[in-house]
Amino acid sequence: MHALHEAWRLLRPGGLLVELRPTARCPRLEYRWSSARRFLGRVADPDRAPRQHAVDLGVEAVIEQGYFRTLRTEHFDSCNHYDTLDDFETYIATWWTTAQPSRQQIDRVRVLRERYPEGVLIRHEEEQATLLAKAEPSPTDEAESGP
After folding, report:
1. 126 near 22, Cβ under 8 Å?
2. 20 to 30 A Cα–Cα from 81, which one of 5, 13, 48, 119?
3. Measured distance CA(135)–CA(131) in Å, rounded
4. Which residues contact 21 (CB under 8 A, 6 or more apart)?
5. pLDDT digits (tens, 9 = 90+) for 24-65
6. What is the secondary structure of 18-38 as a DSSP string?
């Protein structure tokens, strides 16, 4: 959680930080064309839940240690659109280390792409945004020394 400690060091007392990240739920795929859509299921990622749990613990630790106060947490769905299957596969190869769509999902996209070439592949990602406020140091704290 070096990044949160560095943010704490740079923020003024009461300063705000938005901590934004994906949740532990795996992304889901959808193919959309005209006014129709087909959900293709979630992309399996065996490391996602443990990885996000570790991040949760790190954020909770800096809050429990008194560096930040949680003002609010919201969940929302972010969407990425891919015009071609190649675009999506390039994204996967570049950014995903353990998540892989199944062969069945890729085959279904190919079939839908042949039938509805105007369609787009959409990746839905559940995100979490937490608004954190830098905790006000008490007179006995060494506020300038940092965490």
Report:
1. yes
2. 48
3. 12
4. 52, 55, 127, 128
5. 899 999 999 998 999 999 998 888 889 899 999 999 999 999
6. EEEEE-SSPPEEEEEETTEEE
- d(CA 46, CA 139) in angstroms, rounded, equals 46
> Which helix (DSSP H) or strand (DSSP E) does residue 41 occupy?
strand 36-42
Amino acid at position 51, single letter: R
pTM beyond 0.90: no
DSSP collapsed to 3 states, 73-141: EEEEEEEEEECCHHHHHHHHHHHCCCCECCHHHHHHHHHHHHHCCCCEEEEEEEEEEEEEEECCCCCCC
- Cα–Cα dist 18/93, whole Å: 28
